[in-house]
Design brief:
Layout lengths: L1 E9 L11 H16 L3 E8 L8 E9 L1
Antiparallel strand pairs: 1-3, 2-3
Length: 66
């Protein structure tokens, strides 16, 4: 059986585009590698832009054996 953990990783402020950039991806990689070192496996992630297109976030779900 697995236990699951979901985290929100807020990205940098965007003024002209709601897309993730290289810095946002680097932060996502850092979080994934940090969790992997603690035994968590990436299950899924999604990027959510906001309606104002200024601030978005990744929603990331991890799992590990209970």
């Amino acid at each position: 059986m697995y236990i699951y953990k979901t985290e929100i990783l807020t990205v940098g402020t965007k003024w002209f585009s709601d897309k993730a950039d290289a810095n946002d991806i680097a932060e996502l990689d850092r979080l994934i590698n940090e969790k992997a070192a603690d035994g968590w496996e990436l299950v899924t992630y999604d990027y959510m832009a906001t309606s104002t297109q200024i601030k978005g976030a990744f929603v990331i779900t991890f799992r590990k054996q209970q």
